[in-house]
Write a structure and sequence with these properties.
Elements (H helix, E strand, L loop, with lengths): L2 H4 L20 E6 L4 H13 L6 H18 L6 E8 L3 E8 L20 H8 L2 E7 L2 E9 L7
GO molecular function: ATP binding; protein serine/threonine kinase activity
InterPro entries: Anti-sigma-factor_SerPK (IPR050267), HATPase_C_sf (IPR036890), HATPase_dom (IPR003594)
Keywords: ATP-binding, Kinase, Nucleotide-binding, Serine/threonine-protein kinase, Transferase
Length: about 150
């Protein structure tokens, strides 16, 4: 199974670099596992979708939250994380994969004064669907944002 199968709706992990030209319609980019790279991850998704995209702000926000988690909770020796993204006329799918760690993604409700802990809560609130996959060497969190047709609006 490869990243294209993930983006066709199957929940699989991609643990190796995939050439974007080998996977039609899917953009994949790898980032160093550094906090300052979250800005570049946001810019990658923002540039892919464009400001006029109906889910631009939600996609950029969720990418920021999940990329931050990828850096914070991956193994200490992790050197990178990757983002796979695909947008169609009906939905956007974004998957962020890191080097894995010792924790599993859990939604929690932090106290009002807690500075963090809201990323997965926001993901659960804003995403149409989401999930995660763990392998011995990686953790991947994916989410979709459905684009409503005018008939549904």
């Amino acid at each position: 199974m490869d990243a294209f199968q993930l983006l066709q709706g199957n929940l699989v992990a991609r643990t190796a670099e995939v050439d974007p030209e080998e996977v039609a319609g899917v953009l994949i980019r790898q980032f160093p596992a550094l906090e300052r790279e979250v800005t570049n991850a946001r810019a990658f998704i923002s540039g892919l979708l464009g400001q006029a995209h109906p889910h631009h702000d939600d996609a950029v926000l969720l990418t920021s939250e999940i990329a931050t988690n990828a850096i914070r909770y991956a193994r200490p020796d992790a050197t990178s994380f990757s983002i796979s993204a695909q947008t169609t006329e009906t939905s956007t799918l974004i998957a962020i994969t890191d080097a894995g760690g010792t924790t599993i993604p859990l939604i929690c409700k932090p106290a009002d004064q807690d500075p963090g802990g809201r990323g997965l809560f926001m993901l659960d609130t804003l995403a149409t669907t989401w999930g995660f996959i763990r392998t011995p060497t990686s953790t991947g969190i994916w989410f979709t944002l459905k684009i409503s047709s005018e008939a549904e609006a």
